[in-house]
Amino acid sequence: MNVSPDWKLSANLTVATFTHSNKAIANGIDNSMPDAYLEFATDWATNIYEPLLPLLGVSVHIDSGYRDPKLNQLVKGVSTSQHCNGQAGDCVPAMNILKAFKVIVSSGLAWDQCIFEGSWIHLSYLAGKNRHEILKHNADGSYTHLTKDQALALEN
User: Fold this and answer.
1) What is the dihedral of CA 16, 33, 66, 7, to 10 degrees?
2) How many other C-beta atoms can be found within 10 angstroms of the C-beta atom of residue 137?
3) In degrees rounded to 5, what are phi and psi of residue 5?
């Protein structure tokens, strides 16, 4: 059974917003989130999305939250993607992405992975198991692990 799109994961995030995908629609993929992932998605919304809004002081669009495995394969996501169980979201704040990334990195926000992707920020959350990894997506498709100081020194 799938979670109702109207369900509120948190004060400012619904399942409909967290699961919306133009790519899924265009390719006939049902991106409805199974009930089994409701707790993970609620944890993400409560511990990542809600604190992110006042931290950045701007609206934050979720470009990709939950992904059905078929959608994840279509977008060339890794098979272990945290998107596939509701534990990750790609965030597009209404501000300079690099500046937002640096604010997040220097904050006390608890994340598992914070990845600077160039035009969005991937944030994941694993209740009680956050690794606090900071990464940067490179032009060749690889990722570089960064220290906090390295992340704060990044330039456009």
Assistant:
1) 40
2) 16
3) -60, -25
Q: Do 104 and 55 form a contact (C-beta atoms < 8 A)? A: yes
Q: What is the pTM (predicted TM-score) of this model?
A: 0.95
Name residue 122's beta-bridge partners. Answer: 90, 115
User: Are the C-beta atoms of residues 40 and 86 closer than 8 Å to each other?
Assistant: yes
Q: Which residue has the tokens 């390719």?
A: 27
Q: How far apart are CA 89 and CA 64, in angstroms?
A: 6
Amino acid at 122: H
Q: What is the per-residue pLDDT across 31-77, written as a single tens digit (0 to 9) for each?
A: 999 999 999 999 999 999 999 999 999 999 999 999 999 999 999 99
Q: 156: which residues sit within 8 A by CB, 6+ positions away? A: 98
The SS3 assignment for 59 reads coil
Beta-bridged to residue 143, according to DSSP, are 137
CA distance 12 to 120: 19
Q: Can you list the domains of the chain with their CATH numbers?
A: 8-152 (3.30.1380.10)
Say yes or no to pLDDT of 23 above 90: yes
Q: What are the helix (H) ranges across the chain? A: 15-19, 22-26, 38-44, 50-56, 69-74, 97-106, 148-152
